[in-house]
Design brief:
Layout: H1 3-13, E1 26-29, E2 39-42, H2 47-55, E3 60-63, H3 80-91, E4 94-97, H4 100-104, H5 109-116, E5 119-127, E6 132-140, H6 144-153, E7 160-164, H7 166-172, E8 188-196, H8 200-208, E9 217-222, E10 231-238, E11 244-245, H9 246-257, E12 263-264, E13 273-274, E14 277-283, H10 288-293, E15 298-302, H11 306-311, E16 317-320, H12 323-327, H13 330-341, E17 347-349
Parallel strand pairs: 2-3, 2-17, 3-4, 14-15, 15-16
Antiparallel strand pairs: 1-4, 5-10, 6-8, 6-9, 7-8, 10-14, 11-13, 12-16
Helix pairs in contact: 1-13, 2-3, 6-8
Length: 360
């Protein structure tokens, strides 16, 4: 199996199109065409992780945090990143990272945090816009069934077919060459499918594969966010009858995320009920206002600033579990995805990772 196939399996779960504009999700080091001997999954790539991969016979490391985040001007061993890149190249180990794409996908980091706490996701905290696209194929009526089947085979869940006038189609695709249609003699149909932005290419390729030439015209249009499952953070609730008090929930969070100390808003009544919880893996301070707006009693995230604790006192209970602690679950997600999509393949979780932050 080629490394390319492993990356494809990961991107079918967490498409790179979901990443934030400032991010560097994707292939970092190595060759996509190389034969994959095994995969080591981790949160952060380090020299120790590269060595661990070699010892386990793996030539692909999959990480949550990108190894290369800012541009490298040299690889001279003067920084941790440079030394890790050099170690990977010397060892023939490829590196692929999926960062904010994993944060924003359904079943990603924040969903996993909710699952770990026994909560049921009820929506996305900061929804991702511009993901839903409508692909419409205009064809003569006798070809519409073939077009519909091709679009469904490309991965679309459903298709809508309607009769249209040639004049309507000419207006819709006014840019470019006019189609080979006669308004007087041709009965036309529009076949539409709604897909994600990263699925458009599959739909277009399927249509082009029919070889209909100028008897086919395609219109692509953006839709408002329909899915409601993609974005940063989630809002979740406990199952009926399983609500905890604030003090009970705080102890539950500490146990689940393995923290001895929890940074938590002061002045919160320990007996107040926890009915709605907002969660966001990693640095989620920018979404505190959204957590308040959705009526969350608690917001579980990391890297919360002092002034955030002060400014939102009385509005919501903030719980900072730590960046490492909130995202180390990425390894479990990677492992599940890869072992499900590629059964009987060597996938390992790194055992050498350590939290770069110590608590004394």
């Amino acid at each position: 199996m080629r490394i390319r196939a492993v990356v494809s399996a990961l991107e079918s779960f967490a498409p790179s199109a979901l990443q934030e504009g400032w991010d560097n999700t994707g292939f970092q080091v190595g060759s996509l065409g190389a034969e994959c001997t095994g995969v080591l999954v981790c949160l952060d790539v380090s020299e120790a992780v590269i060595s661990e991969a070699v010892e386990r016979g793996c030539n692909l490391v999959v990480s949550h945090h990108p190894l290369i985040f800012k541009g490298l001007k040299r690889i001279a061993g003067t920084s941790v990143v440079e030394r890790t890149v050099a170690a990977a190249i010397r060892a023939g180990v490829s590196v692929y990272s999926t960062h904010t794409s994993l944060d924003s996908t359904e079943g990603g980091i924040s969903y996993e945090m909710a699952r770990m706490l026994g909560l049921r996701p009820a929506g996305v905290l900061a929804g991702k816009e511009g993901l839903d696209v409508r692909v419409t194929a205009y064809v003569p009526r006798e070809l519409s069934e073939d077009v519909e089947l091709a679009l469904l085979d490309s991965g679309a869940e459903s298709a809508l077919t309607t009769d249209v006038s040639a004049a309507r189609v000419v207006r819709a695709v006014a840019a470019g060459d006019l189609p080979e249609w006669s308004a007087e003699h041709e009965a036309l149909r529009a076949v539409s499918v709604d897909v994600r932005r990263w699925e458009v290419r599959n739909a277009v390729d399927a249509l082009n594969g029919l070889g209909l030439g100028r008897r086919l015209r395609v219109e692509i249009s953006a839709l408002e966010n329909q899915s409601g499952v993609y974005g940063l953070g989630v809002v979740a609730r406990p199952a009926e009858g399983e609500e905890l008090t604030m003090s009970e929930f705080a102890e539950h969070v500490k146990r689940v995320f393995g923290v001895k100390r929890l940074r938590i808003s002061s002045g919160v009544s320990p007996d107040s009920p926890v009915r709605t919880v907002a969660l966001c893996g990693g640095s989620g301070g920018e979404f505190i206002g959204r957590a308040v707006g959705c009526g969350a009693d608690v917001y579980v995230t990391a890297d919360i600033r002092y002034h955030d604790f002060a400014d939102y006192s009385g509005s919501i209970c903030l719980m900072d579990v730590g960046h490492f602690e909130s995202e180390i679950c990425a390894k479990d997600i990677f492992y599940r995805v890869l072992t499900k999509k590629i059964p009987n393949f060597a996938v390992y979780k790194s055992e050498l990772e350590k939290n770069p932050v110590n608590y004394l």
